[in-house]
Specification:
This protein is an alpha/beta fold and 244 residues long. The chain has eight helices and six strands, in the order ααβαββαβααβαβα.
Length: 244
């Protein structure tokens, strides 16, 4: 990929993920439970699943015989080999999200199911607003400090562009609160979760294959602008469809 179009530093992301502590992966486990619940509503037994994830130690529990694939720019998926492909909590890191979906579609058998879960557009919106207000008042400028996430209205379009049939997208809101921004960074930091300075609502995507130098956030001047942060979880709106 052209370096000018690279959004995610994969080397830095890999280093951050290697430092993630097990108890800080609670969002991945919550997402896994939601995906498992949605798959249980599908009147079909999947025998050749593939899971695209950066945390195989968590997502391997979703399907006992699944092929676990790292969420790199080029996915190690075999064309037409799987009846289920789950892209787990990694689409927001993709330099080319449509390319990731296309690669997943090509790996599907006819009538296969593609399911993706990731952080949605309202992820950390309180933190985004808090940091923006504090930085603007102190420095007079504004820097992007939260990674961009896909809005729900855009996700269906991405599925269609990738050539998938019957695309469905909905969201779930999981709320996690901390007393202030310093409690957030002290108890379960993005670095602990394997995501540093990178960015939680979840977005669930489902479709089938067609048959054919920053201010210190703990500074008292900033803390007056901080408020509890919330991360989404919305309940299912579709029969068999599926944040972060």
């Amino acid at each position: 990929m052209n370096a000018s179009h690279t959004l995610t530093d994969r080397a830095a992301l890999t280093r951050n993920r290697s430092r993630a502590t097990d108890d800080a992966l609670f969002l991945h486990r919550a997402a896994l439970e939601e995906v498992d619940d949605r798959l249980s509503l599908v009147n079909r037994t999947f025998t050749s699943a593939a899971i695209v994830t950066g945390f195989p130690q968590v997502w391997g529990a979703l399907h006992p015989n699944a092929t676990l694939v790292e969420d790199t720019d080029t996915l190690a998926l075999t064309q037409g080999a799987h009846d289920l492909v789950v892209h787990a909590m990694g689409m927001h890191w993709a330099n080319d999200p449509v390319g990731q979906i296309i690669q997943s579609r090509r790996a599907l058998q006819p009538d296969g199911l593609f399911l993706s879960v990731g952080f949605g557009g309202q992820t950390l919106h309180e933190l985004r607003a808090c940091l923006g207000q504090a930085e603007a008042s102190i420095t007079g400028g504004l820097s992007p400090r939260i990674a961009p996430m896909a809005e729900l209205r855009d996700i269906g379009g991405l599925l269609q562009r990738a050539g998938l049939a019957l695309p469905v997208a909905d969201s779930v809101t999981l709320t996690t609160e901390y007393s202030d921004i310093c409690s957030f960074t002290a108890t379960t930091t993005p670095r602990q979760r394997g995501a540093s300075k990178q960015a939680l609502s979840w977005s669930f995507w489902r479709a089938g294959h067609r048959r054919t130098a920053s201010p210190n956030p703990c500074d008292p001047a900033l803390r007056s602008n901080a408020w509890p942060m919330r991360w989404p979880r919305q309940k299912r709106r579709c029969a068999i469809d599926a944040r972060p």
